[in-house]
Amino acid sequence: MFRAAVGQATEAVKVIYIPPAAQEDSSRDEIGHRVKREIEALRLCRSNRLVKLGSLQLETFSFNQRDYLIYSEEFLEGETLKARITRGHRPNQAEVMLLARCLMEALREIERIGHIHRDVKPGNIMALPQPERPFVLLDLGIAFKLHGTELTVRGGGPPGTLLYMAPELFRPDYKQALDIRSDIYSAGVTLFEYAAGQHPLARRSEDIGTTVYRILRQTPPKLASLRPDLQERLCSAIDRCIKKMPALRYRDPQAFLNELEGII
Amino acid sequence: MNILAQHGHQPGEKINRGLKEAVMNGVIFSARYAPPEKARTLINEAKLMKPDAEILLDPEFYATPLIGSPNCQLGSLADWPFFKGQKRRDLIREKAVVAILKEAQQAMINLDVSAYIAPSVYIPQSFDSIEGAAALNFIERAKGVFGKKKPVYATLAVDGRALLSSGDFQAFVNDLTSLDDPPDGFYVLIGGGPLSERTDLVQADIIDAKVIGGWMFLNYVLSQNNFRVVNGFADVLTPFLAVAGGASCATGWWANLRVFSMGRYVKTPNSGGQTPAIRYLSKLLLNHIKNTERYDYSQVIPEIANGLSFDAAYDKGSPDRADEALQTWEALGSLASQVMTGNIANDLAALRDRVTKAGEAYARLRMFGITAGYETTTEYLDQLEKGIDVFKQLAELS
Prior knowledge:
The complex is a heterodimer of chains A (264) and B (398). With 264 residues, chain A is an alpha+beta fold. Chain A has helices at residues 25-44, 81-86, 93-112, 174-177, 180-196, 208-217, 223-226, 232-241, 253-261, and strands at residues 2-6, 9-18, 59-63, 66-74, 79-80, 115-116, 125-127, 135-137, 144-145. Chain A folds into 2 domains: 2-74, Phosphorylase Kinase, domain 1 (2-Layer Sandwich), CATH 3.30.200; 79-261, Transferase(Phosphotransferase) domain 1 (Transferase(Phosphotransferase), domain 1, Orthogonal Bundle), CATH 1.10.510. Chain A contains 9 helices and 9 strands. Chain A has a 4-stranded antiparallel β-sheet with strand order 1-2-4-3. In chain A, strands 5-7-8 form a 3-stranded antiparallel β-sheet. In chain B, the strands form 2 sheets. In chain B, strands 1, 2, 3, 4, 5, 6, 7, 8 and 9 form a 9-stranded parallel β-sheet that branches. Chain A binds chain B through residues 168, 177, 179, 181, 219, 243-248, 251, 255, and chain B through 170-171, 173-174, 176-178, 221, 224-226, 395-396, 398.
């Protein structure tokens, strides 16, 4: 992604390289379809909790005998949650509530257009110095249209970022279990990590197998035990998002937002 | 938490007295024991007794597979227009299911019920079955057909064995909680009980910890998803289901109105035998004991008597069937209210404490040479306690 002047505006220009290994028609088409799906999903979304499309339409071009796709999104001047967590930022109750509200409003919009995001994580959330737009969810690149297209797969496994993937996505029949509650799980892990400064289950220098085992089997600590200064009810709401069983999480983003309404 | 009467054979004045004397909060009338006109009369009478009573009617559609079976006893069910045999494969077809729901809605539309119980099928062994798919089909379409004028509770009638396969059970619950057009609540029946009302059942016949914990979990997960959960045939499990999130629990006066079984629709060889002894529900023992036992045991442990208002009929020595039913409802309501504080961790601890105290009371009775039913009772109490652990694990509370 590049910061670039497009016409009169500064935009984030996304250039997607199509590697030689993907020159076969099917792989090439697959990459093209993914990008088109992201653009189509962004075009349908009306919430400013999600990144918006820029003015550069999707195009294919070749340079030095290599093929690329190019399009633009709005340029967001800010800091990712991942960067904030890394530098030890400790949000207060109001900030955690604000992030929770923005994130769930973004998911509610994604649900409205019949998609799920599938890659909610701190690296895909931008904190902006704008009171009306404090947090924005990025990257719908692996968003999936429920009851619509086939899933995009990368290497045959479920798409997403392992540390933030809901337990049901590790099942061989995960396609049948996909619904917005998988995104609510990822949002819950993100909120937990942002509030506590640590991932609820993964530990540094741990092998992937152990992490996956923890995601599938281990009960995370209660957020209130790590952040006793936050309201118990807020902590419990975030804890509920990361239950292993989808039915134990909030049914949809609106249910979580309703819970937030009750927290002063 | 509402205590409801489970309507059945020989209701007499039990229900109206229970409502009038406020030992319970409502009734689940049975289509089997009341044809349409009688149901209307019974419902109106109940409303007169207690205008704010929770009044429901179980359409008992799940008994249709027994139509034509030898020795089936379906009572008035044949008088209800929706109660017709269906081909099993048709029950997973939307058109057929909507037609059944529409007939049931039309049959109930003029009844002054608090909410409609929408019909569904019985899931006999596994959620991963045609019946499981058919049940989801009924549940998903119920609200759309019954409309928004009154709350709609979908029937979820399941054999206890289906709860043993946790993978299929959890997958079913995941589906149940993500329906596009969900009902307002569920009427939950867990099968596995006695075949006949003549059975001298003492405790709930569901003695498997996985079934007890699974039933609690159903109440928890459905209530967490803002569904109202009404449990039929709950009996001694009432406080357990209430703590888990159940809104109402129904219990009747015969053994087969305390624990659900599909066998209740089939005449058994011992039908017509001796009428069971009148019993007393001891809160301390979590058990129905005979009146004579109540007297004997109380000499050793006075707390075995509940000290509630309907103890009076027993103290006089001549309780009748109505007294027995009223005493049961009163004791269940008292038990539930004592263990419910709104904090589930505390409530589960209180339930466990209740089970422990029941075990200690039985151990004390044994020290005094009273050993009747000791083995079965302690086994049952053991399963109750393990049921709490199963529930905590399923609900991710441990």
